[in-house]
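Hey, resending since the last one bounced:
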Amino acid sequence: MHKRILVLEDEEAIASMIAMNLKVAGMEPVVFSDGLKLQQALSGDHAFDLAILDVMVPGLDGFGVFGLLKPYKIPVIFLTARDDLESKLRGLTGGAEDYMVKPFQVMELLVRVEKVLMRTSKGDVLRVLDLEIDLEGHRVRKNGVEVALKPMEFDLLVVLAKHRNIAVSREDLIGLVWGSGYLGESRTVDVHIGQLRKKLGLQKAIKTVPKLGYRLEDEGL
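The structure tokens again:
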């Protein structure tokens, strides 16, 4: 099941860019440009896994929308041009998961979104091929039999599964799994891919994409 991401952004170009990249990452964006319109819609639909909120939007600002989301326990990432300390503290001490300042890199936003989703997902199970990936318990079962994976191997498998049938570059895999501050070699991705193929019998399913990265193929889904 795709993760539903609520996006509050009144600049159309930025909203479209965010939505497009969330779709490519296998998520379902729902975009609003007005806080009051979002408030009206929320009473009938609040099944969101995460919200990305701009602060300075028409109707009801991002902080006001943040208050509306709290009863539904929807994790929030602020994405705004408001870079003053007071605004950052208001967001973070109020319970937001993250606070990003514009201008921003889309890849960094996706990395932060993935990190928050991995941290806040409860009881989710990804099913790919003959695998069951328990996100909360950090367990993987192949045909019902648990297979021991190291933490980074597990995280790498989760990223590939969430982006199944999509080619993901080594650089993006490093950002999503090891973090944007990783300073090691990209070959570490190849080593971990080799371990996943061996431990889970995914030699044919994890395809090498020349000069790019890897793709987990699961055309049955």
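The chain has two domains: 4-120, 125-216.

Sorry for the duplicate.
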